[in-house]
Amino acid sequence: MNNRGEYLSRLKDQKFQVVIVGGGINGAVSAAALAASGVKVALIDRADFAGVTSQESSNMVWGGIKYLQTYEIPLVWNLCGSRNHMLEAFPNRIKAISFLAAIGPTAPFGRFLGGAGTILYWILGRFKTKPPKVYSPEETIEIETLINPAGLKGSVRYDDALLVDNDARFVWDFVKNASEHGAVTTNYVSMQDATRENDLWTLHLKNELNNEQFDVTAEIVINAGGPWGKDLTQKFHDQTIHQLALSKGIHLVVPRLTTNNRVLAFFDDKGRLFYVIPMKDRSVIGTTDTRVDDPVSEVTDQDREFVLEQANRCLNLATPLTKNDIISERCGVRPLVVKGKKDVSKIEWTALSRKHEIEVNKKTKIITIFGGKLTDCVNVGEEVVDFVKKLGIRITKIKKWYGEDKQDKYQDFISEFKSISNVSESDVEFVAPAIWRRHGNESFEILKSFRENNDYLERIFPELELTFGECVYIVKNEMVQKPEDLWRRRTAISLIRSAEEISQNRLVQRVNSLI
């Protein structure tokens, strides 16, 4: 997988049935679904896969409970169904988790309405999660002492789901599946321009690592540019009936605040939900919802102050959080779908639906994906296959294009792992399941490296489950071109460890020397 030169040679001057521009979650699932359907497809991204919006999510695979506030019942019904399906397809990578929502002084409703809302959410979720429960203020504080009791009206508990590893890692799984089914997937390749002649698209591409330029042709192009979707539309000289409003969301990663594995939900002083989410031995606080015009955004001092202020107001902390507690930051721009030629700058973006839209230009054979969420990504892939079929591409029997490897070899893997000479009980309980979760049947290759190299079992950071040997495997097999591809996207190390800790880590530097 890391032989990028081989992928480039399979890309240059070749003709494809479909070329997908944009390697976030929408592009990745489209490539995986199409390749498994027998379509000759290429996927390119001008940076690394999942390098923008798809690496900045809350890591939640959820039914969208907050959309009940805007009465989007059909959207919540569909998202809950998708969440349930994802839990079944990815039993190790996605786990059910409890949410405890504090109904404090800024909540837009009281305990009774909150309880009714969670019951409705449970019903819309087809009763697949644990039944919700309503707690009094006293019961809430007994359950979770971290919640500030001032003005507390009670709380509600409901269940949703969370990615065990990071979102960008999840996107990579689809890129890998696409490649295994024959797709040509290449990162750091940008589209400079596109022309259409004789019913074929010619895409003028550039290798961003050495500036080499070349062309590919395609019968159909898919615009999966996320927040840059409109920019690509202009390069394709396409007119769409949908447009985008951009909303910035930020998260701050701080030392672990909770002692249990649950998500805490609160309402900020504007009545909007924000969360304290566990991430390994850290906590993630967010998200915000700020209107922006530029797909490239950064965390501002105002953003930091707002999130820290809300956390300190809602949490019963012995010492208030300050900027010095911030380990890392996440900043993503959500592309929200607007239909028609309205003036986007005058739209109340917080009321915009979070559902995706797929638009097809039958004349020029352009498919544009607007919006989308991790939760309903499989639906996006399947819808894209249907549209490609309607545009004249023959679809063969669809093979399995998502989900984890069968679990029948897991016990064999654990048994072999235990037989390694220098393995500890902690490694068996902590490291082995993590390797299997991320790599499935490929885990046996990592085991082989542990046997051949005594130091490969050493953990990058002793408190975490990531080993030197797994990092070497990722560098060699997962198209890592830059250190941030590994530490930010294939793993979440740069989210849960400070830049200083990473720069001073000898194993990190040893791995970086291999990139």
Can you count the beta strands? 18
Quickly count the domains: 3
Helix content: 25-40%
Average pLDDT: 95
The CATH superfamily of the largest domain is identified as FAD/NAD(P)-binding domain
Inertia-based shape: globular
**Terminus-to-terminus distance:** 14 Å
Cα radius of gyration in angstroms:
23 Å
Q: Spans with pLDDT under 50 lasting ≥5 residues?
A: none
Protein structure class: alpha+beta
How is the main sheet built? 10 strands, mixed
CATH architecture descriptor text of the largest domain: 3-Layer(bba) Sandwich
Task: Please explain how this structure is put together.
The protein is α+β, with helices and mostly antiparallel strands. It folds into three domains: 4-54 and 168-241 and 351-390, FAD/NAD(P)-binding domain; 92-163 and 245-336, D-Amino Acid Oxidase, Chain A, domain 2, CATH 3.30.9; 407-512, no CATH class. Helix content is 34%, strand content 24%. It has helices at 4-11, 25-36, 73-89, 111-124, 137-143, 167-180, 229-235, 301-314, 377-390, 410-418, 425-439, 443-452, 468-477, 483-490, 493-496, 499-503, 506-512, and strands at 15-21, 41-44, 60-61, 94-103, 133-135, 154-163, 184-186, 189-197, 200-207, 213-223, 242-255, 263-267, 273-279, 282-286, 290-292, 328-339, 357-361, 366-370. The strands form two sheets. Strands 3, 4, 5, 6, 11, 12, 13, 14, 15 and 16 form a ten-stranded mixed β-sheet that branches. A hairpin with a 5-residue loop joins strand 9 and strand 10. Helix 2 (25-36) packs parallel to helix 6, helix 2 packs across helix 9 (377-390) and helix 10 (410-418) runs antiparallel to helix 11 (425-439). The radius of gyration is 23 Å and the shape is globular.
